[in-house]
Design a protein that fits this description.
The complex is a heterodimer. Chain A contains 22 helices and 26 strands. By secondary structure, chain A is an alpha+beta fold. Among the domains of chain B are: 147 residues, no CATH class; 162 residues, no CATH class. Helix content of chain B is 74%, strand content 1%. In chain B, helix 4 packs antiparallel against helix 15, helix 20 packs antiparallel against helix 23 and helix 25 crosses helix 26. In chain B, 38% of the residues are buried. Classes of the chains: A alpha+beta, B mainly alpha. At the A-B interface, helix 1, strand 11, helix 11, helix 12 and helix 13 of A face helix 1, helix 2, helix 6, helix 11 and helix 12 of B.
Chain lengths: 709, 657
């Protein structure tokens, strides 16, 4: 191209030599710039792959199929015959691949456990603690009871005789409700606890925190100019007594608030001691099982009778229609039966269950890593033998187990997001490309879309928080007290379990009154939700859940999807549409049969591109969907059926892979123990996202090359 | 493709049986469905604006009230005095740091010998824990046997033997363990090391393990040597002067501190009374409500008493603030002492050039900078204190400027919360500028190379790879920055070859520079792709004409192609800038999270996106803090929109040409 001798007046012409060097130098600079980008990418990928692969190799599939857990780092003393269930043993070996030579004498052991199976008849009565135990031991058993019983007798067991001292009123009520356990001879003692009648003059006085605290439960009217902070016990503040008052106080209050020698106590203008005699009754309660009325147990519990009954709320009545079959360990069965006289049990059968354990020796003291459930299994399994001797214990949150929860969460978020984004995105692009005529409306839509593409992802997060998490409407019969707007629809009685009312603080209104009134009542009662037999549309938001996160992500990714879908639609030649229309097809028919099928590969690319973008985002889901810790998978632990269950599932918060990485990389202290989790999850995350990315890049190139109309 | 209107009756394809409701047929329904979806973009963008405004509009009035309370309670007055002290305290702490860095520099490897010793010992103990436990066990057993009176001699001997073997085993294990330790295994890579110390340290660690005492002769000797060296350094004129300056700075601080804390006590009492008063009416109402809901008479009585206990009289601010007004003469005296002593200290300050350590020099220069304006600050604050009036109303403008020009972002403070966006804005802008400056040469250079100079194979290969880089999730890059890049930068910036770069050596792992590099890497695909597009769109005729004139391909690119698509490239850069400023995870994790206006690009800082991500999860809906965060979101949104708009306009202009 260059001429050997360029004329001198050519402005581009310089001497051949210098021009060449200069050209080469600049060209080299460009090459360096380009390849530095590629090299730094290679460096980042390389670092993550090199450090991540060993983690995946040593943990194997369990890294994918276990939930994130706390890692316990325990120094264990060398010992023989440590026993642990088979599946935990495998996991322990995986976590301690470095020390695998220390595990010797590995052999299988069979253990028998004795369990009792029995039926519970409908209408049985059981104490709350016992019910919870039953639920823990029988997977899938959850009683949605609707009634409590505060009358039927409850039982408790004393291991040894116990001496009990009661004040007079307590003793009298015990005697009235449970005369059978009060013996004939009761020791009676009389003690004198004075009360004081004191008069305080109107005025302003300095007061200390202890005196103030003592006065709060009394009937004295006093006004504080400022409140006491918890961290300054020695501070003196001013108290105003608005009028001269005379009140009666207990001795303890008297000495705390009016003692003249103390600093920060109130002066008295008059005081009088009122003798106050109290009778104390002491008697012996023999060992054994006693069945008494619940209020009697309530009194005795204060004096050391242990049981798992809830005397304040009462026992629970089984509302099952058919007998329920449950299983408990045999040694607990007797206690259960003794403690609950109202339990109607039949078909009792004992069974031996064999389980396989691994017994091994530890040949040296070693620092071992345990996931929390393995650690619990190993301590439980060796409690009796005492062979497992931990010397020191350190815990590292989120550093053990695998990343099942985050993977599942990310997958769910992506699915919800893509369902929403693709349906609206494709519809929009069809409109823009096929229907819309040039005009103001289209110009506005395009401008809005361009701008939407430039909005920072964290602002989408804020938007999702404001719209989906705290405002979006839901259909519910138990609206939130703090809902922005509640619209009643129809009175539909749904069954409110007594348990939900107690546990989740639902305020149940029995009478019919206005919505706002119920709401105020519920708020005053300190409940978070209320129920009055109506179905409502409540603008209370969906809470931090996968639905809110999925919608937020969908809105964020919409411009990407629309733009690329539109591109692929407009790539379909005009002739296709014209031919179809000429054959008599309607507009929609021709779009459906002659345009969409040919645009499909492009739409597929767009959706994969969208997935890549969405799966990698952290900021929009940080406060709309993701939580750092969640012990079960989103579909576990939903106590509902049918549509309610599906809605409940969508309203679960999830762990998400990018958020998990944020947690392990930025929010917990860094140490050598957290590193495998960090690199492992980053590598898996990269593999997932980059596979999608590579796939979309490949598809795009393929379409570009292959499809030529 | 234009939408065809209804075909007329003559059309043979016209289907007159089409079902119509209210004149709307199936085709129309489909059309409206698609059209409805298209409006979503408009709805969403307007809703984003609506929500940001809705949640933040009450911020300024609320903030004004907070600031009003801040003034009424006398906290403002106290803070004037305490700002004087804080500025002055900065001097002494900088001086202390300068001395420490200088000593560290001059001692070199010796400075780190003892920390290395401690770390080696810790690592070695970890490696030999089981041998050590065994040794300890045998030792206790032997001691127990020796303590007992009537132990048979042979049993004692046996125990002694077991003990000896355990000891030997421990010794062997310790030696073996120590030999695996190296300078390269140290956790702090920036420590200076010297190979001559390695063997003595190892030997000393073994000795320390065997004797069970921390100190060995080697450690004691090192300590002594350090002490002598430090004494020598302290005797140099620079450090002597520095020490004297420092003691001058320190001298008046204690009294002034006492004075400020006495003011603080008054103000916090006032504040607490004011806060109690502001909530009194609401509390009284709530208690009266509770009274009507009370179930028993007793409860009702108690609720009545509780509501009677609420004090609803406004505190008398004038008398409460009297002690503050009375303190003015005392403050004048104290300030005179403070400024006199400070000036004396400045007079003794050595020059930065007298120091060898770069870090020390940086501290000295910081002191010199403070010297320029500290007396103005003293004067200004004194003037503000003298003209201060607790009754002066706080205007709305103060709240607005307090947000946009405020240099403090303090939340959850027991004293007073401040919401000033400036440090966050500065951090965001600073990191974006660093990133863009780093990204431009690579992204634009790469685009030029790939589009104009590269071989077809390179084109085919590089473009997809860079697109692929664009898909790396930001959290992965953030992780890389925290775990790898931070340390890499910190270690390599120590090397003398790079010391000409301002701000080097880098002092921490998490800095603006670190985040900037990652963000540059992140924005490269955006800028590259758009710039490459722009280059691609230059008409072929330009190139042909240039070549025909005898220009080489490179000359063509540099003087014909690039100028003709410069606006496209600028738009690409602007869009890249927009992407960087909106990035969250990298700045949150990698920038260090210090809320202060950064002085250099190697400082840690915080950002607008980072503060949103960090704080909004823990804030109550509708609180002042919530409003402030949404306000930050609004500012961010406006910045991003403006950038986007400018870039798009530039692009459009370019496309039209």
């Amino acid at each position: 191209m260059s001429t050997p001798e360029a004329p001198k007046d050519n402005p581009f012409c310089k001497s051949q030599e210098s021009r060449k060097t200069q050209e080469n130098a600049i060209r080299t600079l460009f090459i360096i710039a380009t390849y530095v980008i590629l090299l730094s990418a290679a460096f980042i990928f390389g670092d993550i792959i090199i450090k991540g692969t060993p983690v995946l190799a040593s943990k194997g599939w369990s890294f994918i199929f276990k939930k994130p857990q706390t890692l316990n780092v325990i120094e264990v003393e060398k010992s023989d015959h440590i026993e642990v269930p088979v599946k935990n043993f495998d996991s322990i070996i995986e976590s301690n691949a470095k020390h695998s030579d220390l595990f010797t004498n590995i052999k299988e052991v069979q253990h028998q456990t004795n369990v009792t199976t029995f039926d519970i008849a409908p209408g049985s009565v059981i104490g709350e603690g016992y019910l919870k135990n039953l639920e823990k031991q029988n997977k899938g058993f959850y009683l949605r009871f609707d009634k409590r019983d505060t009358q039927s007798p409850v039982a408790f067991t004393l291991e040894s005789p116990k001496s009990i001292t009661l004040r007079n009123p307590e003793f009298e009520s015990l005697k009235a409700s449970a005369p059978e356990i009060v013996p004939a001879e009761v020791e009676v003692a009389e003690r004198n606890l004075s009360k004081f009648e004191v008069t305080i003059e109107e005025g302003e006085y300095p007061i200390g925190k202890s005196a103030h605290d003592a006065l709060v439960p009394t009937k004295l009217v006093f006004q504080m100019r400022q409140t006491f902070a918890d961290d300054e016990p020695d501070k003196i503040n001013q108290v105003i007594i608005p009028s001269t008052q005379t009140i009666t106080v207990e001795a303890a209050v008297y000495f705390a608030a009016f003692d003249e020698d103390e600093r920060g106590t109130l002066p008295l203008s008059a005081e009088e001691s009122i003798p106050n005699k109290i009778l104390f009754h002491t008697f012996e309660l023999p060992a054994g099982t006693h069945a008494v009325a619940p209020d009697a147990l309530a009194i005795l519990e204060k004096h050391g009778a242990n049981s798992q009954h809830n005397t304040a709320r009462g026992s629970i009545i089984f509302n099952n229609k058919k007998p329920l079959t449950l299983t408990v360990p045999s040694n607990e069965f007797e206690e259960l039966r003794k403690a609950n006289p109202g339990l109607q049990i039949s078909n009792v059968s004992n069974q031996d269950i064999a389980s396989t354990y691994i017994s091994f020796s530890l040949s040296k003291d070693a620092e071992l890593r345990f996931d929390i459930d393995d650690y619990e299994a190993i301590t439980l399994g060796n409690k009796a033998s005492g062979n497992f001797i931990p010397l020191s214990e350190k815990t590292h949150s989120y550093s053990g187990g695998g990343i099942l929860g985050p993977i599942v969460g990310t997958a769910l978020l992506v699915i919800i997001c893509m369902v929403v984004a693709l349906s609206t995105g494709i519809a929009t692009s069809v409109f823009l490309n096929e229907y819309a005529a040039k005009g103001k409306f289209i110009a506005t839509v395009r401008l809005a879309m361009l701008n939407l593409a430039g909005v920072p992802s964290i602002v989408f997060g804020l938007f999702g928080l404001g719209l989906f998490v705290i405002l979006a409407p839901t259909l519910t019969s138990q609206p939130n007290v703090e809902s922005k707007l509640i619209i009643p629809i129809a009175p539909i009685a749904s069954d409110i379990g007594a348990r939900e009312v107690e546990d989740k603080k639902i305020y149940v209104s029995e009478e019919k009154m206005g919505t706002d009134e119920v709401r105020n009542l519920a708020a005053a009662a300190g409940s978070t939700r209320f129920y009055d037999g109506w179905q409502y549309i409540s603008f209370q938001g969906w809470g931090t859940c996968m639905l809110a996160g999925g919608f937020t992500l969908a809105i964020m990714v919409l411009p990407v999807i629309i733009t690329s879908c539109e591109e692929s639609l407009s790539a379909v030649p005009m002739g296709f549409r014209e031919a179809s229309l000429a054959l008599g097809a309607t507009k929609w028919q021709s779009i459906r049969t002659a345009v969409l099928p040919y645009a499909f590969p492009g739409i597929l690319t767009a959706s994969i591109l969208g997935i890549t973008r969405v799966a990698g985002e952290t900021a929009p889901i940080m406060f709309t969907a993701a939580v750092a810790e969640r012990s079960d998978l989103p579909w576990q632990g939903i106590n509902a059926t049918g549509l309610d269950a599906f809605v409940g599932f969508l309203q679960q918060s999830v762990q998400a892979l990018p958020y998990h990485i944020y947690t392990v990389a930025g929010r917990i202290p860094q140490s050598e123990y957290t590193e495998p989790m960090q690199y492992g999850s980053v590598l898996v995350f990269m593999m997932i996202v980059m596979t999608f990315a590579a796939f979309s890049v490949w598809l795009r190139i393929r379409i570009r090359n292959k499809i030529k109309w | 493709m234009k939408a065809s209107k209804h075909s007329d009756k003559n059309n043979p394809f016209y289907n007159s049986n089409e079902l119509k409701v209210l004149g709307i047929g199936k085709q129309d329904v489909i059309r409206y469905f698609f059209g409805g979806n298209a409006t979503l973009a408009i709805i969403v963008i307007s809703m984003i604006i609506l929500f940001l405004v809705y949640h933040s509009y009450s911020f300024f009035p609320q903030y004004r009230e907070k600031l009003d309370l801040y003034r009424k309670s006398g906290q403002e007055f106290t803070d004037y005095a305490s700002e004087q002290l804080t500025a002055q305290k900065e001097l002494s702490s900088l001086a202390t740091q300068a001395r420490e860095y200088e000593i560290q520099h001059q001692l070199g490897a010796l400075y780190n010998v003892r920390p290395i010793h401690a770390e080696f010992k810790r690592d070695a103990l970890k490696l030999i824990s089981s041998e050590r436990k065994e040794y300890e066990r045998e030792k206790t057993r032997l001691n127990d046997l020796q303590d007992e009176q009537d132990t048979p001699a042979e049993q004692l001997d046996a125990a002694q033997q077991v003990y000896d073997t355990a000891k030997a085993k421990l010794q062997d294990a310790a030696v073996a363990a120590v030999n695996t330790l190296n300078y390269s295994t140290l956790s702090n890579k920036s420590w200076k090391t010297d190979p001559t110390y390695l063997e003595p340290i190892r030997a000393s660690v073994v000795e320390s393990i065997m004797t069970g005492k921390f100190s060995t002769d080697f450690v004691a000797e090192t300590k002594e040597r350090e002490k002598q060296a430090v004494a020598l350094i302290d005797a140099t004129p620079a450090i002597t002067n520095l020490n004297e300056a420092r003691s001058n700075f320190l001298a008046p601080q204690k009294d002034f501190d006492k004075f400020v804390s006495s003011l603080r006590k008054v103000a916090s009492t006032n504040k607490s009374q004011a806060v109690t008063f502001t909530s009194a009416a609401a509390r009284k109402e709530a208690l009266e409500k509770k009274q009507t809901f009370a179930k028993s008479e007793e409860e009702q009585e108690m609720a009545r008493i509780e509501s009677a206990r609420v004090l609803t009289i406004e505190p008398d601010y004038t008398s409460l603030n009297q002690p503050l007004y009375d303190s003015l003469p005392k403050h004048k005296d104290m300030l005179a002492v403070l400024s006199a002593k400070t000036a004396e200290g400045f007079a003794r300050m050595p020059q930065a050039s007298e120091f060898q350590s770069k870090l020390a020099q940086r501290r000295i220069r910081d002191i010199e900078q403070i010297e320029d304006n500290i007396s103005d600050l003293f004067e200004e604050k004194r003037h503000q204190m003298e003209t201060w009036d607790h009754n002066k109303p706080v205007s709305m403008m103060t709240a607005v400027t307090g947000f946009f020009m405020g240099t403090k972002w303090v939340t959850n403070s027991s004293w007073q919360d401040f919401y000033g966006i400036l440090p966050l804005l500065a951090g965001s802008v600073c990191v974006a500028i660093v990133a863009v400056i780093l990204a431009i040469p690579f992204a634009v250079g790469g685009a030029i190379y790939v589009n104009r100079l590269a071989s077809p194979f390179e084109q085919k290969f590089i473009k997809p790879v860079i697109e692929f880089i664009g898909a790396i999730p930001s959290i992965v890059l953030a992780f890389f920055g925290v775990v790898v890049l931070g340390e890499l930068l910190q270690t390599h910036s120590q090397s003398p070859i790079l010391s000409w770069i301002p701000g080097f050596p880098v002092e921490g792992r998490l800095t603006i520079l670190n985040a900037g590099i990652l963000l540059a890497f992140m924005s490269i695909p955006t800028i590259f792709t758009l710039a490459e597009d722009a280059l691609n769109n230059v008409p072929k005729a330009y190139k042909e004409a240039s070549l025909a004139l005898g220009a080489t391909p490179l000359q063509t690119v540099l003087s014909v192609i690039i100028p003709s698509c410069s606006s496209g490239i600028i738009a690409a850069i602007l869009l890249g800038f927009g992407r960087i400023i909106g990035e969250t995870m990298v700045v949150l994790l990698v920038m260090g999270g210090r809320i202060a206006i950064p002085k250099s690009f190697t400082d840690p800082a915080h950002s607008m996106t980072g503060i949103l991500a960090q704080e909004i999860g823990e804030v109550d809906e509708g609180s002042l803090h919530w409003g402030a965060l949404f306000m930050v979101g609004l500012v961010l949104f406006v910045i991003a929109l403006t950038l986007n708009y400018v870039a798009q306009t530039t692009l459009r202009k370019f496309a039209k040409r």
